[in-house]
Every structure is written in C-alpha cells, then in structure tokens.
Amino acid sequence: MPQAIEPGFMVFLGEGRAAAGAVRDIKGSAHLVVNVENGGDFVIAADAVRDVHDDKVILDYDRLPADMQQALRHLHDAEYPAYRAADPAQGTPQEDA
C-alpha cells in the first residue's frame, strides 16, 4: 500500500537528489501545497507525484506548473556563496528535463 502524503514530508525531483522543498498542506485528494526553497508556496495536482516513500515525495517535473518549474530552476540563487552547496545543480532540474 502506498504511503499517504502528509504535511512536512520533504519534496524531491528524483531519487538521491537534494530536497527541493516540503509539503505544507493537502487539499482533498486532488491537490497539494508545496513550499519550494526560495520560491514560496505552489498548489500542484496530485498526479504530479511520481512516488511516495519513507516520508519523501518524488515529483514528476514535467507535470508541475510552469511557475513552479521556474522556481525549481533557482533553488540555490539566494544562498550565500560561502555556504552554497558543493554541487548547486543537485536538486535542481536539468536543462533537458
């Protein structure tokens, strides 16, 4: 049985990738509110969820709203350079995604 999504679950764009945000709220069975790091809250359709396990939500990038895709491409822009991730592309979508 698939794990039910709950507020607080971390959101990822793929297995083994850095977290991109977290689930803030569940809107019935059809929508989630996801907070993207440095991007704010986005309401997404539940069919954008590819997998749920171990309190993690894996999203299907191609099914996300365009404004959320744009925010995901800029997850690390506001980080202070000295503390920026060693690989700032990790966790962000690939250009060919």
Question: Which descriptors apply to this entry?
Answer:
single chain; about 100 residues; 6 strands
Description:
The chain is mainly β. The protein has one domain (10-79). It is built from 1 helix and 6 strands. Strands 4-3-2-1-6-5 form a 6-stranded mixed beta sheet. A hairpin with a 3-residue loop joins strand 3 and strand 4 (40-45). The radius of gyration is 13 Å and the shape is globular. 22% of the residues are buried. The model has no long low-confidence stretch (mean pLDDT 84).
How do the strands and helices of this protein lay out in sequence?
Layout: E1 10-12, E2 21-27, E3 31-36, E4 40-45, E5 49-53, E6 56-59, H1 66-72
Parallel strand pairs: 1-6
Antiparallel strand pairs: 1-2, 2-3, 3-4, 5-6
Give a short summary of the structure:
The chain has 97 residues and is mainly beta.
Shape: globular
- Uncertain residue segments: none
Helix/sheet category: mainly beta
Q: Strands of the largest sheet, in order across it?
A: 4-3-2-1-6-5
Strand content: 25-35%
Oligomer designation: single chain
Domain unit count: 1
Query: What is the H-and-E element order?
Result: EEEEEEH
How large is the count of helical segments? 1
By DSSP, the count of extended strands is: 6
Main sheet specs:
6 strands, mixed
